[in-house]
Amino acid sequence: MNEQSKPNKPGRPPAATIDQIAEALENSVGIFTGAAKLLGCAPNTISNKVRTSKKLRKLVAEIKYKTVDLAETQLLIKLKEGNMTAIIFYLKTQGKDRGYVERIQDQAVGKDGEPIDINMDRDLSNFTDAELRKIIDRVEENGVVTEAKKIKDSE
């Protein structure tokens, strides 16, 4: 028996054929849950069929490619309209070679939350391990943490 004509277990709806799954995927723009709803089956059924069918894998890849093209077209339309969100997004993702990147800076802060100047002009290579351990212990005692850690801990 081939894959499309397997008998069903009692109480189950008839298994969808590859062609039926393909049509459902096209109608749901490649969304497995949407295709499953159209066919009255579970999303993992669609996922399993796609994984085992070269035809379905190819179709899903084609749908994704076309959908990305559509999204890019809409983004470019918004850019031409002067939509600031679209402009920022485009520059962050496509303008990196021109310096449009988002930077995250850590700022050391003390117990009171005020910034601490941690400019390290010292050459630490001459310190012993014991001396370095003392410096680390002192910093930890004084409650110096990075702003990123402080934010993370408060979440």
Describe this structure in a few short sentences.
This protein is mostly helical and 155 residues long. It has helices spanning 18-27, 32-39, 43-52, 54-80, 84-94, 129-141, 147-154, and strands spanning 108-109, 145-146. 56% of the residues lie in helices and 3% in strands.
Q: Could you state the order of secondary-structure elements as H and E?
A: HHHHHEHEH
State Rg.
28 Å
Which consecutive residue ranges, at least 5 long each, have pLDDT under 50? Answer: none
Q: Helicity level, as a percent range? A: 55-70%
**Mean of residue pLDDT?**
83
Overall, the morphology is elongated
- Give the tally of β-strands: 2
User: Mind describing the biggest β-sheet?
Assistant: 2 strands, antiparallel
How many domains would you count in the coordinates?
2
Number of helices: 7
What strand order characterises the main sheet?
1-2
Kindly list the characteristics that best describe this protein:
155 residues, mainly alpha, 2 domains, two-stranded antiparallel sheet, 2 strands, 56% helix, 3% strand, elongated
Description:
This protein has about 160 residues and is mainly α. The protein folds into two domains: about 5-100, no CATH class; about 110-155, no CATH class. About 55% of the residues lie in helices and about 5% in strands. It is built from seven helices and two strands; from the N terminus they run αααααβαβα. The protein has helices spanning about 20-25, 30-40, 45-50, 55-80, 85-95, 130-140, 145-155, and strands at about 110, 145. The protein has a two-stranded antiparallel ribbon with strand order 1-2. Helix 4 crosses helix 5. The longest helix is centred in the middle third of the chain and has 27 residues, at about 55-80. The radius of gyration is 28 Å and the shape is elongated.
